[in-house]
């Protein structure tokens, strides 16, 4: 599989015929875990008021986070 941007196709019809929209779905699928990790490790602590209240790294911190919240 390779990246097939719309500007590389001769026409939009060619891009659609060769599965262009599926590449967008795959890109979203690969970006979803990145977005989730960003939300858990960056956005949530900012909303909590401090980074120490966010999701910790490591098994002991994770278990503590699950028990506290």
UniProtKB/TrEMBL annotation:
Keywords: Acetylation, Chlorophyll, Chloroplast, Chromophore, Electron transport, Iron, Magnesium, Membrane, Metal-binding, Oxidoreductase, Phosphoprotein, Photosynthesis, Photosystem II, Plastid, Thylakoid, Transmembrane, Transmembrane helix, Transport. It is a multi-pass membrane protein. Signal peptide: none annotated. The keyword Nucleus does not apply. Its main location: membrane. It is found in: Membrane. GO terms for molecular function: chlorophyll binding; metal ion binding; oxidoreductase activity. Pfam families: Photo_RC. InterPro entries: D1/D2, Photo_II_D1/D2_sf, Photo_RC_L/M. The chain crosses the membrane at residues 24-43. GO terms for cellular component: chloroplast thylakoid membrane; photosystem II. Belongs to the reaction center PufL/M/PsbA/D family. This is Uncharacterized protein. It comes from Gossypium davidsonii (Davidson's cotton).
């Amino acid at each position: 599989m390779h990246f097939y941007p719309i500007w590389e196709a001769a026409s939009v019809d060619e891009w659609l015929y060769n599965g262009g929209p599926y590449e967008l779905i795959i890109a979203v699928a690969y970006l979803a875990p990145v977005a989730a990790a960003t939300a858990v490790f960056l956005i949530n602590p900012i909303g909590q008021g401090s980074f120490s209240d966010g999701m910790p790294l490591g098994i002991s911190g994770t278990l503590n986070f699950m028990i506290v919240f």
